[in-house]
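User: Can you predict the 3D structure of Quaternary ammonium compound-resistance protein SugE? Sequence below.
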Amino acid sequence: MNWITLIIAGLFEVVWAISMKFSHGFTKLDWTIVTIVGMIISFLLLAHATKSLPIGIAYPVWTGIGAVGTVIAGIILFGDKLSMLTWLFVILLLVSIVGIKLTS
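Assistant: Sure. Here are the predicted C-alpha cells for Quaternary ammonium compound-resistance protein SugE:
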C-alpha cells in the first residue's frame, strides 16, 4: 500500500511542477493555488510512505517519478523537444526507478 502512496505522491509532484509553469511565476492565482495544494499533497503522501519505506528508497523513487512524469507532461502540454541523448537518460532514469523498486 505504501508503494501506491509513493506513486501517487510522485504523480502529485508532476501536478505541482506543471501547474507552477502554468502559474507564470506565481502571477496567476488559480494556478498558484493548484501548485501549493499539489506540493502539500505530494509531501504529505511522501511523508506517509516513509513511515514504512526507507527514505533512501522512497525519496529517489518519488523524485524519479516526478522527473520522468514532468518530462512526459512537458512534451504533451508544452511541445518540449528532447534530443536522442536526453531520451536515453530519461529511459535510464525510468529503468533506475524500476530497479530500485524491484531490489528493495
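The chain has a mean pLDDT of 95. DSSP finds four helices and no strands in the chain.
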